[in-house]
Amino acid sequence: MPSLTLYRLVVAVLAVSGVAQMPIFKRYYIADIPGLGWTADFIFTHRLHYLAAAALLFWLARRIVLSGASSIGEGRLALLLALIATGVPRMLKNLPDVSFSPTATMLIDWTHLGAAMALGLTALAMVFKRHPHTSRR
User: Fold this and answer.
1) 137 or 38: whose pLDDT is higher?
2) Alpha-carbon radius of gyration of the chain
3) Considering all CA atoms of the chain, what is the largest pairwise distance in Å, rounded to the nearest integer?
4) What is the three-class DSSP state of 33?
5) Ordered alpha helix ranges (H), the chain
6) Three-point CA angle 123, 77, 43, nearest 5°
7) pLDDT digits over 75-92, tens only?
8) Which of 49, 67, 98, 105: CA 20 to 30 A from 133?
9) Helices 3-20 and 42-67: angle between axes, nearest 10 degrees
């Protein structure tokens, strides 16, 4: 599987499983659509998000080692590092012996969500900006 395809697949899984951490799919009856019932299973989507995050970390480390950080792009790398920097405290927050103040928790959550939205919007903008005759990598 090409590296960029793996990245896109992992980011798509992270996006869906991340949104599923909020009860949006059950609230808006998306989980009632046949085949999408798993989106309302918090534990499953939680574990799926962690698994995809580990895959993203592996992809990122491999890409940096083999091709250098510049192959990822400064903007994408900055957003990915912001997601990692806020994702780690979010993961730690789920441990029973770790707690943050409500303000710190809110800032971490909003920064993580904002970085994820910025990554998604940037990717969408790049899709529309792409010249139709440009070769795909």
Assistant:
1) 38
2) 16
3) 54
4) coil
5) 3-20, 24-27, 42-67, 74-93, 102-129
6) 75
7) 999 999 999 999 999 999
8) 67
9) 150
A 10 A CB-CB count for 11 gives: 20
Average pLDDT over residues 46-60: 95
For residue 136, what pLDDT is reported?
A: 56
Q: Which long-range contacts (CB under 8 A, 24 or more apart) does 42-50 make?
A: 45/16, 45/17, 45/20, 45/21, 46/17, 46/21, 48/13, 48/17, 49/13, 49/14, 49/17, 49/18, 49/20, 49/21, 50/91
Residue with tokens 């534990």: 43
Question: Which residue type does 100 have?
Answer: F
Distance between CA 36 and CA 41 in Å, rounded?
Answer: 10
DSSP conformational letter for 69: G
In angstroms, the CA 58 to CA 32 distance is 34
Cα–Cα distance for residue pair 25/36, rounded to 1 Å: 9
Give residue 113's Cα distance to chain centre: 9
pLDDT for the residue numbered 114: 95
Reported as a pLDDT band with limits 50, 70 and 90, residue 23 is: confident
